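Serine/threonine protein kinase, pasting as requested.
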Amino acid sequence: MHKAGIGHWDLTPPNILLVDDGYGGCIPQVSDFGLARALGEMRPKMMGTLGSMPLEVMQASVPACPSQDTFAMGAMAFIICVTPDKVQANMFISPHLFTAAEAKAKKALEAKGGGPLAMTLRDIFERNVMERTMSTGAFTTLMTVDNLHPDLGPTSVRDMVSCYLPTFLASDLNNRGDMATFEKVMGHIIKMVEAQGETKVDEQGGDGSAGSEVQQA
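Structure tokens follow.
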């Protein structure tokens, strides 16, 4: 896509389809190019989905570049990698990241109900929280080893996720990892997770029969 000079600008979980590969597996396929733009074309401020758009797009109209899609892919990986109790569509406004003042403000906003004014105030509140957690890197507190999904396997795998994933969500474009590096790192992590699964199967005798034999003995 980027090699063809096109950026998606709305890479979110609903826009990544898992398609049958014809061999018993599936492959991811990008869908919904409604917001796609040519690289270098101006991307309007706030164009996209909150939680998947980088800070620079929240703050101003900017030239479209591949790193904006890289951020969105990093945001999806963020959702996938955290423990289930912390998963939400927009990880950058997680209650686990609230300051005491933000938690108090959130309760006050919820008490206002669901009218137009209340909804506008909530939108402003969420954008302010996002700008803080993204610009300061506060969101990385949800990427510590203890906050990552146990299905990722041993500490070594979760350490790798904790170390590398924040680089793809960096607010500073000069420090944000590129898509090629994202694919390489995430591909390596996936292989490590799959290898752990294969090891467990081998230890159980392929179908769990080894465990049954031990119990019978």
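Note for the archive: Confidence is low (pLDDT under 50) at residues 209-217.
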